[in-house]
Design goal:
Elements (H helix, E strand, L loop, with lengths): L7 E11 L2 E7 L12 E4 L2 E9 L2 E6 L1 H6 L10 E5 L19 E11 L2 E7 L13 E4 L2 E9 L2 E6 L1 H5 L11 E5 L2 H10 L5
Antiparallel strand pairs: 1-2, 1-6, 2-5, 3-4, 3-6, 4-5, 7-8, 7-12, 8-11, 9-10, 9-12, 10-11
Length: 198
Amino acid sequence: MFTGIIEEVGQIVSLDDAKEFRTLRVKAEKILDGAAPGDSIAVNGVCLTVRSLKPPEFTAELSGETLQRTSLNELRAGAIVNLERPMRADGRFGGHIVQGHVDGVGKIRSFNREGDNWTLQVEVPSQALRYIVEKGSIAIDGISLTVASMKPPVIEIAIIPHTFDNTNLQRIKAGDNVNLELDVIAKYVERLLNRETV
């Protein structure tokens, strides 16, 4: 489980296709402390498994499913990505429950600076709207954020300087696709209230 508090911004070194998988090589520093092959690392909100590790780089494989359902298929060498290790059992819970399981891809409508803050507008898929509430949490490219307002299909989020300075939002622009993870609690509540049996 993750929290959506980005620990480090890494950089894509290379992407190599081999059979059904694409190998992603990422340059990082902080998150590799204590890491080992088989560990999980969230890359732009997608939970990936470390395949190999040679600091300051690690590799992970992207399956066809991951490439189809996330924006990781658009990554190119040189791109910066948000990185987070799983939450430790004895750690503080700083963001919200994030699983690293992307529910859909949103599109940046606008990203404008207003004084010391930025306003981010994201168009979300229609099927995602029922899990989003004003002042509720959403993970965008793995970042735990609060929905400031909603004008479906667009949600608006206020970005503070710390978040801007320490995530891939430094390079985001209108038209970019981003990974969305919705509130897992809302999804389970909906499932429990649905009287249909499996």
